[in-house]
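Lab notebook, bench 4. The sequencing result for the construct came back, and we need a structural model before the next group meeting so we can plan mutations. Quick request posted to the team channel:

Model the 3D structure of this chain.
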Amino acid sequence: MSDRGYFFQNLDEMASAAVGPDQGWVNVNIRFVTEAMTGFDEVCLFRASFPPGAQHQPHIHPNAAEFFYVLSGHGASGLGDAEHEVRGGAFELVAKGMVHWLRNISTTENIEVIGGYLAVGSLEEAGYVPVGQVTAAQGQAEKA
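Done. Here's the predicted structure in token form:
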């Protein structure tokens, strides 16, 4: 519980998180809102933009479920060994410990998403474990 009572931040005015390809974030622009910055318990939200060709490689969060909502664009979301197409309006909830990824499959537009991790205050608390790259077999999105 926060003693602040209120928090406001324009995410477009925040610096992007320092994540890179060596950690599985390929050309992803992501901004996190965390417990540390808000003063509110168990808050970890994000807004991410994936330009054409960008992707978040397969990974797991051992300590938290993740949700995301596609605001706009056209991408492919992977869960376990399968991949499916996502577009604006798509919502996903991924159980903790499940391998998942997201990539932009459009050649002309960004995919924009908002999301977060449940019952934790940061990505570090959620845990983040890269588990490889999208394979050719996985990289065949099924039509949703």
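The radius of gyration is 15 Å.
Will bring this to the meeting.
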